[in-house]
Design brief:
With 118 residues, the chain is mainly beta. The protein is built from no helices and eleven strands. The strands form two sheets. Strands 2, 4, 5, 6, 9, 10 and 11 form a seven-stranded mixed β-sheet that branches. A four-stranded antiparallel β-sheet has the order 1-3-8-7, with no helix packed on it. It is globular. It starts with a strand and ends with a strand.
């Protein structure tokens, strides 16, 4: 079964940087779309960044210019560099791997928390 696991979350000072990783297992994912989402308590989960099989990226307006998403298909891994972090970036982030062709799936990681201190 396809699974995804995030890593790299934690505490960082305001203005600092973090690198998140997400590793998939259980298949080949060259044609899949990777994404990072975030969800604050009591609010809807929202897209932060996505990257297609052709390495075309899309970012939410609040993070564009500060976050960078990339992928390494050989390692079944997605990365996200987070720069100039502020308090508003403090939340839980989820890795997502989505396939629109057979076998269709939409996999989520368990979520990792990013906390930005003053």
């Amino acid at each position: 079964q396809v699974q995804v696991v995030e890593s790299g979350g934690g505490l960082v000072q305001s203005g600092g940087s973090l690198r998140l990783s997400c590793v998939a297992s259980g298949g080949a994912f060259f044609g899949d779309v990777w994404g990072w989402y975030r969800q604050a308590p009591g609010k809807q989960r929202e897209m932060v960044a996505t990257i297609t099989s052709g390495s075309t990226s899309d970012y939410a307006g609040s993070v564009e210019g500060r976050f960078t998403i990339s992928r390494d298909n050989r390692k079944n891994t997605m990365y996200r560099e987070m720069n100039s972090l502020g308090f508003d970036d403090t939340t839980v982030y989820y890795c997502n791997l989505r396939r629109r062709y057979t076998p269709v799936y939409n996999k989520w990681g368990q979520g990792i928390k990013i906390t930005v201190s003053s």
